[in-house]
Amino acid sequence: MTGGELSGRKIVITGVTGLVARPLALALAGDNEVVGAARFTDHATRASLEAAGVRCVQIDLAAGDVSSLPPDADVVLHFAVAKTNNWDVDLAANSGGVAHLMEHHKDAAAFLHCSTTAVYRPEGHRLFAEDGPLGDNHGVWPFLRTYSICKIAAEGTARWAAARFGLPTTIARLSVPYGDNGGWPAVHLHMMLAGHAVPVHVDAPSVYHPIHHDDIVSMIPRLLAAASVPATVVNWGGSDAVSIEEWCGFLAELTGIPARFAPTRHTIDSVQIDTTRMHELIGPTSVPWRNGMKRMARALHPDKVW
User: Fold this and answer.
1) Per-residue DSSP letter, 144
2) Which one, 7, 37, 204, 262, has the greatest CB density within 10 A?
């Protein structure tokens, strides 16, 4: 595939009700035939997607039930993730689900598997390139104890399936997505407005690469163009490294609400990524993080932002 704009394509997007995939589906639906796949437990969300031109299809990745998806899709954008905290369910959905999905779409031109920088093993302030050590990053959070391990397992499955089916694949390790509809920085903003302290790791600062939804949408064609056999693995985040302390401080400036922090070992450590390969394959991001977070804050709390 070329790295130009996506138009006139049949695109399957899984996890279409989620924070990242939903705005992506809405952005692509105008110029493409978009099939949005999810469990669709929220009927209102499904109705809003269908009203925007997204054809919604119910699937169950844990059961391997993807037969309702069109096998002739041009490209597949896989953003679905199971986080039930049940190991059997989450391994079946995240690892087994990728296998079923890639087999069903083995004739697609490209497959994008959205992974996460949470696959990297915490090592203080190490700069993680794509060959960095993998491990249980999110297990420190009881509500996400299966997340990192299942994401690592899913990457292994995607690598195998790319080779097995000759399906050009990109595995993109996403850092911190955010936008007008929320994200981790928005959670911190909500905490600040409610008077709560924001947890940060004792090994300060807690550094990540927040990426705005506009950049996520604009980079999809180039991520698909980078798909290959064996699978391409690339870090995916904002070009600037930004700490929780720094973005909360900026949100405090916007709202006049002071940012308070609660240092602890019971939260995830920094995951600063090496963006060299990302810049080579898909270029830098274009939304400066301060501009993006100001937009986010104004969209979510227009009465609180100066």
Assistant:
1) G
2) 37
